[in-house]
Design goal:
This protein is an alpha/beta fold and 439 residues long. Helix content is 46%, strand content 16%. The longest helix is centred in the C-terminal third of the chain and has 27 residues, at 412-438.
């Protein structure tokens, strides 16, 4: 899972025999790997070397179980958030965002070799594979004898076929030769599995000969032969856990609420629309305008109605936040506070103060800032002097803790990236605090 814009510089170094001579790393990937190395984490890429520059999918890593706390601490410090879930053991996912390259990076981490749709087929050899791993520049890779089995079993048991993107690498690893199978390794265990009167070693030879149809047929047979009673029970239990977790919203805990503030013409709705498709988690947009309807109501009824409406919308946002979603409030109750001019009467000031406190403060306030002249040119409403006064009020809100001011000028792409970074930073900050309390 990744989202990327623009190209990125490559990090390449010559690799050892039987490995690709050079591997390009996206800068964000290189920074994440360097962070793991600095933390002393024993890790290795499982597959997908060809995707590490354009981030076309998840980055799959194998890590020693005892290194998980250090890995979690290191990635959290880098701004990653762990995606909590039920039924995904032994998988753990960490998601991070790099505003400089507009890239999302998801690290899918396992601590053991486990295959099948629900990781129900466990196989030994993870520790030995990590002990025998090698380096290609900034990248840690499984040795060929481990990598060929890890990739082949992933294709056959997890996916049921060999995807086009894996064929060249699988053929290359198969051609490198399996070598002697050391006891306790993934290769030794796989060699002992028979299928269709032959062995899995025959399938490695089939990969070298590019017999992809044969491998697809063998995948169905292999899955059936390895789905023993215990594996089926594990798969059923995890299937139910995932379904319950999805229903309860536990797949993506740690949502956040964000309010976009600014005078008319600042581009709040435009930014809200752009943010809606910019996150790896669901996003909900809720309009919180105070003064859209101008209906004559008895004294006090309008205030009560608007306050109740604002609080009701806030509760809807809290519900979505509890489901792990990013909630974008288009406008918020702070608008009333900014428009509370000193020249207004006591009744008007009191009315606006009450409206400004109709709903609790969101997790993050983003103030879109533009000069009064620019706002007047965009909307033609109110005088530039009045707009400048409002601008000062909004900037004062943006100076508060838990708030930020965004330049809503010509560089909309830069504004969008900065907003994404701030929103994800809000989620990461709260996750870091929770992790620190648990640790």
């Amino acid at each position: 899972m990744a989202r990327r814009a623009g190209s990125s510089p490559a990090h390449t170094r010559p690799g050892p025999p039987n490995a690709q001579p050079s591997i390009d790393l996206h800068p964000f990937v290189a920074r994440a790997f360097a962070t793991l190395d600095a933390a002393g984490v024993s890790w290795s890429l499982l597959r997908g070397e060809e995707e590490l520059n354009d981030l076309a999918g998840d980055v799959d890593l194998l890590v020693r179980p005892e290194d998980l706390p250090r890995m979690r601490a290191a990635l959290t410090h880098l701004g990653f958030v762990e995606e909590r879930s039920w039924g995904l053991h032994p998988h753990r996912a960490f998601i991070g965002y790099d505003s400089a390259t507009d890239a999302w990076l998801k690290l899918d981490v396992v601590t053991a070799f486990a295959f099948g749709s629900y990781g129900e087929i466990s196989m030994p050899g993870a520790r030995r594979a990590l002990a025998r791993r090698g380096r290609v520049g900034d990248l840690s890779l499984l040795g060929p004898a481990d990598a060929v089995w890890a990739l082949l079993l992933h294709c056959l048991l997890d996916k049921g076929s060999v995807a086009d993107k894996h064929r060249a690498r699988l053929r290359e690893l198969a051609a490198a030769g399996l070598g002697p199978a050391e006891p306790g390794t993934l290769g030794a265990h796989a060699r002992a599995i028979s299928i269709g009167g032959g062995s899995l070693a025959d399938l490695v030879s089939a990969a070298e000969r590019e017999e992809w149809t044969r491998l697809e047929t063998a995948a169905r047979e292999l899955g059936t032969s390895l789905q023993k009673t215990r594996a089926r029970a594990v798969a059923s239990r995890r299937r139910v856990a995932r379904a319950i977790g999805w229903r309860l919203g536990l797949l993506r805990r740690g949502g956040t609420t964000v309010a976009l503030l600014g005078p008319d013409g600042a581009g709040k709705s435009t930014l809200a629309g752009a943010l809606k498709g910019s996150f790896p988690v669901p996003v909900r947009t809720i309009y919180m305008g105070l003064y859209k309807r101008k209906v004559k109501l008895p004294p006090g009824v309008g205030l009560l109605g608007r306050s109740g409406l604002q609080f009701g919308r806030y509760l809807i946002g809290r519900y979505h936040r509890s489901r792990g979603r990013v909630v974008i409030f288009d406008r918020y109750t702070h608008d009333a506070l900014v428009q509370r001019h000193s020249t207004a009467g006591f009744k008007t000031r009191a009315h606006r103060w009450l409206l400004s406190h109709a709903a609790p403060r969101p997790d993050l306030l983003l103030v879109l800032d533009l000069p009064g002249e620019t706002l007047f040119a965009r909307k033609g409403e109110r005088e530039p002097v009045t707009l400048e006064t409002m601008r000062a009020g909004y900037r004062a809100v943006g100076a508060q803790p838990g708030a930020a001011v965004l330049d809503a000028g010509a560089d909309f792409e830069g504004e969008r990236r900065e907003a994404i970074g701030l929103v994800w930073g809000s989620i990461a900050s709260r996750y870091q605090k929770r992790t620190a309390r648990k640790g």
